[in-house]
Amino acid sequence: MHVPDGFLNLPTSIGTAVLASGAIAIALRRSRAEFVDDRKAPMVGIVATMIFAAQMINFPVGAGTSGHLIGGALAAVLVGPATGLLCLSVVLITQAFLFADGGITALGTNITLMGVVTVLIGWSVFRGLALVLPRRRWTEAVASAIGALVSVPTAAAGFVVLFAVGGAVAVPLDAVFAAMIGWHAVIGIGEAIITGLVVSSVVATRPDLVYGARYVRLAEARDRERVRA
Fold it and tell me: For the residues 51-61, what does the mean pLDDT come to?
């Protein structure tokens, strides 16, 4: 989903850069509250490194198209939404400047779509499902997987909206919509599988280091209080 230079016009690119900068500024302030335990600090580097490496590996989805992990939902569940956005931003900035993966002028667009949108959507779906799913060991894995599944085509839809507003190449909007939504729905399945497996593995070994697990535990505590009442 890395957007190259010149695909969107300058006003649209500037607008997404402003949006991304504002989101990062908010995340910098809120990320402090996500790490009340210093033991969890190494998770930030681990998550950023894992997502960077995973984004370098592409898997085929058909018709010569390939996809890769975006990692927004995964990062949000493991280290928190604010910190997760910072991890994604560092990864995308590094890729743009060192590997020419995504344009420099499109950096704000890529952070907005692959960082802000996937983190917010993935985390929101995870939180909602954590409230309604049964309180079991698999809750975190299933909720995070569904969050990842929804976040990828949502980010693709966000790109379609941006292209409709400020597309700078001669590609029909309906073709862009079909390609982005269709293929990214398939890519979302791969994202969901990877996210669910990683979260399940971490929860099985160190659930205390999973940021999202605290909300499942809070829901369990509320259930126990209702039973006592």
Answer: 77
